[in-house]
Design brief:
43% of the residues lie in helices and 11% in strands. By secondary structure, the protein is of the alpha+beta class. It has a 4-stranded antiparallel sheet with strand order 4-5-6-7, with no helix packed on it. A 3-stranded antiparallel sheet has the order 3-2-8.
Length: 499
Amino acid sequence: MSIINNAIAVISPKWALNREAAARSYQSLKGYDAAKPSRTHKGTKESRGANQAVFAAGKNLREQARWLDENHDLSIGMLDRMEERVVGANGIVIEPQPRSYDGEILDELANDIQRRFATWSLKPDVTNRYTRPELERLVLRTALRDGEVFGQMVRGKVPKFGHPNSQGTQFSVEALEPDYIPFELNDVSIRVRQGLEVNTWGQVVNYHVLLDHPADQIGFRYKTKTIPAKNMLHLGMFKRLHQLRGISMFHGILTRLSDIKDYEESERVAARIAAALAFYIKRGDPSMYIGGDDAPRHREVNFAPGMSFDDLQPGEDVGMIESNRPNTHMVDFRNGQLKACAAGTRGSYSSIARDYQGSYSSQRQELVEQDESNRIMQQWFCAGWSRPVFRNWLEMEMLNKQDPLTLPPDLDIRTLYDAVYYGPTMPWIDPAKESKAWQMMIAGNAATESDWSRARGRNPAEVKRQRKREVDYNRKNDMVTGNDPEPQNGDNPSEKVKT
């Protein structure tokens, strides 16, 4: 019983028993067993709001994640793999889809927009250091590791700044680490919460950005500038509604990753010590021990393969030091922990652990399941970064007086900003089986040739242009092969190859 019931029991035991029974009845009203604290179940709760929880731990978590990204090989590999699967080597591929009033894609305009965007992608950021794929990979890594990343869209002429791209498009992106928007900046009077100014509906209207990175500030300088929400990109890992600041992807596995690192280091050191141990010489029993100046001096024994001991003193014996290192169960334990890490990061165990020993069916199943996670991450990245960057660039490209963009008269202006966004696709384990499956789907009108090209990470229009140029060249130079889509003059391409 509780302390109060114990005290009441002294005066009225019946009253105390009734109170205890009522308390137990109240506990039973909690319909789920998980809601009842017990000796084996702590029932830990989180009653704070989303912003309170992030404010209390967000900065600490991102700093721990950064340390792991700098010092832990597995953490580095996780982030590297996410870069490869979400953004890839060529960045997010963007295919403009402007259409006419009849619904037909205007290929010439789409190709012109794509060419201009590719030129701008060579120097998209204000520092003139990164190409667009490089910048996107850095942005993704920052968002995953730190929980969020910001980007200021710089439009038009700005004092003391020139846009790095040379085609006359006055648009650049300034990527910012989350440190530039301070967690500590809160002002209830103007509705500023953790550096973000919101209205009564919870919409962010302004971002308060430090002029310098906090680590680079000298003295007590703490000045900020206000950037309107329309000029700022905010890509964050949000886990709860009404959450303003993002949380690190590692938030649920930080302890596990740290433990894995410490455990592996301990096992590695133990294995090194075990490898350095050789043998010992046993000198009789304790009764033969001689101390002081008369004790036998330490002698060196030169080791060599196949050596034998022929100079042992009377009563001496040679013993080998045995060690159970390296630990034969370490790999299994480590892999089990990595499976838990994969479950907490939308990653796949095989890619994180670099363990590809499964059968074709198991690897295929893992790829299929992982592909949906990759698509979710790609959609998140495109919606928060790639799409607004492309649309704002195109808006400024329309104002480019140096090389104006010509719009055809039959363009449906509502479709000017339409585009298809896609990142790296699911890799093929068996290309022959995959190709046959695609051919069957296209023959059954369940897919298109463009879908097939995109599944290989290629631009369908570019593939067709290259294919047509190749076929025309082969026909012109009498090099028709079995891959020609339509043999000329009744010739059988396979027979021509044989001859």
